[in-house]
Amino acid sequence: MTPLKVVPGLLRVAIVLLRYRLDELVDATHLFRPLKLVRPLLGRPVVDVRPLSRGARIRLALNELGPIFVKAGQILSTRRDLVPADIADELALLQDQVPPFPGDQARSIVERELKQPVDTLYASFDPVPLASASISQVHAATLHDGRTVVVKVLRPRIDERIARDVSLLHSMGQLAQRWHPNAEKIRPLDVVTEVEKMLENELDLQREGANASLLRRNFISGVDLYVPEVHWELTSARVLTLERVTGVSCDDVVAIDAAGIDRKQLAEKGVRLFYEQVFRDNFFHADAHPGNIWVDPTRTQEPRFIALDFGIMGSLPEEDQYWLAQNFIALFERDYARIARLHVDAGWMPANVRLDELEAAVRTVCEPYFTRPLSQISLAELVVKLFQTARRFELTLQPQLILLQKTLLNIEGVGRLLDPDIDIWAVAHPVLKRIMRERYSLKRTLREIRKRVPEWFHNAPQWPDLARDALRQIAAGEQKLMHDANHLMHQRKLVRRMLEAIGSALLGTTLLICATVMWTFQQPHTPVLPIAMGIAGLLSFVFGWMRR
Questions:
Q1: Considering 362, 463, 497, 503, which has the largest number of Cβ atoms within 10 A of its Cβ?
Q2: What is the arithmetic mean of pLDDT over 370-377?
């Protein structure tokens, strides 16, 4: 039931929707249909909306509804699995600009959060903000050692306003869930929950500082990507102090050319950085629009990017990361059967899906693209269409993968803006294969095994009991299935393969532990035996996996 206290807010939303002639959204809720009778009394928008597309009208309506709705629209633009492409493109154009709050209030917030006077914390603090957004604003400052910084400060009472507007969004989601004819596909309550989660993350500036710190550590050399340093002693949940950086927006082609930077080299570097963040580090900037990605104009021989605004970052579960990388490689190599099999093996689709039909659907999407020169193929566009096609086969993807898809669109857009002739495939394919070779190399595997040895020794006494319990369960299951003559042979085969898998896993574990112990304690000039035992253990694991 919608609380009475949000009814005025719902009516205001309905009136704005009517003014911008978004009748299909109002019709979907039925509740607001009577308001159409009073449309002439509601006034007109600043612009004539009749010739505008629905996406443009929604964007203008969200601007009028206020900054939190603008922020929600920006977040929705990342969910291209739920929002039509024309609307998502318009929502991505939303500008999070609102009037600043007084500098005196910013000083008070800084002093309250950091528990010292501003003059003690900073040598200077400019009360006039450099930029102002719906959740925070940024002030220039100088440290006592002369270094320049920027201070990001949350708006006063922003928590209360967001809580009120999120409550309104929940009520709207409940109405849409009940009345919208496509509610099962749109999943409005899930969308509202995601908006709420992202807004909560942006309210914690210490979390944003941690994101910046990790990204900076991943690219500590600063050769390809520079991330501002976080000043932790001047940071809290509501105040974030970062090193001040200067640069030009990555879409300012004129300024980049004026600086004498090779745009082709810069575009290729941007693509490489994306794959390194996703598949090497598993931590990527998920809001990589031109406002947040700058170019360092002082680096002409070795161009580099500068990253800003770390409120929205993405990462993937390790399994999804592996399966996604394999899908990309199969796509680069046009192996459609492997793409179909990988989607099922990853658990993104039901196991009973017909692989031949899925392979045919993938081929239908991909083949028209491969008739063009590779430099004209949009990898991001192709991935979007593949996901849309796969939804017919009950594709289920985590929000992180959709966030990745949106980031890929941004990166490819920037790359083609810098170099319209860039061959995304030629740049991405070798980078991805190199990362996968390094990530799943024997050397890295042995290093990971050495890290886990203490845990294995800790759990080793439990293995015999676990094996015995597993065998008892298998035996009990076999006895129960003996009554079904039609399945007897099949179940016995499964039992035998499971016993082989368990035995292989136990043997592989023993060999790997012995190899690791020998590698750790013996002289480094005689590594042949532990390497041989390690390889034997890995082969035993592989055999067990194949027999699982």
A1: 362
A2: 68
Q: Comparing C-alpha atoms, which of 103, 131, 109 is closest to residue 121? A: 109
Digit-coded pLDDT (tens) for 390-425:
777 776 655 666 667 777 877 888 888 888 888 887
Is residue 509 within 8 A of residue 456, CB to CB? The reply is yes
Angle at 23 between CA 18 and CA 25, to 5 degrees: 105
- Token readout for 41 is 């009394």
- Cα gap 200→68, rounded to integer Å: 12
Indicate if the pLDDT at residue 441 is higher than 50: yes
Q: Are 68 and 155 a contacting pair, CB within 8 Å?
A: no
522 or 355: which leads in pLDDT: 355
Residues in the chain: 548
Look at residues 496, 503, 514, 515 and name the one whose alpha carbon lies nearest to residue 541: 503
Q: How many degrees, rounded to 5, is the angle at CA 388 between CA 312 and CA 418?
A: 55
Q: Which of 168-172, 452-456, 513-517 has the lowest mean pLDDT?
A: 513-517
Residue ranges of the alpha helices (H) in 77-187? 85-91, 103-114, 118-121, 158-179, 183-186
Neighbouring residues of 442: CB distance < 8 A, sequence distance ≥ 6: none
Query: What 3-state class would DSSP assign to 415?
Result: helix
214-255: pLDDT as tens digits? 999 999 988 999 999 999 999 999 999 999 999 999 989 999
Rounded distance between C-alpha atoms, residue 335 and residue 344, angstroms: 15
Specify whether the backbone of 282 is left (phi greater than 0), alpha (psi in -120 to 50) or beta. left
Phi first, then psi: give them for residue 149, nearest 5 degrees.
-140, 170
Detail the DSSP E strand segments found in 40-97: none
pLDDT in tens, 165-211: 888 888 877 877 777 666 666 667 777 777 787 778 888 999 999 99
Q: How far, in Å, CA of 364 to CA of 386, rounded?
A: 10
Closest CA to 316 of 407, 376, 258, 400: 400
CA distances (Å), 484 to each of 396, 425, 479, in order?
35, 54, 10
**Mean pLDDT for the stretch of residues 432-436:** 84
Maximum alpha-carbon separation in the chain: 89
Express each pLDDT in 197-207 by its tens digit. Answer: 777 888 899 99
Q: What is the dihedral of CA 340, 346, 347, 350, to 10 degrees?
A: 10
Catalytic residue among 81, 287, 309, 320, which?
Answer: 287
- Cβ 73 vs Cβ 90: under 8 Å: no
- How many helical (H) and strand (E) elements, i.e. helices and strands, does the chain have? 23, 11
- Angle value at C-alpha 100, between 95 and 103, nearest 5 degrees: 150
The yes-or-no answer on residue 484 being catalytic is no
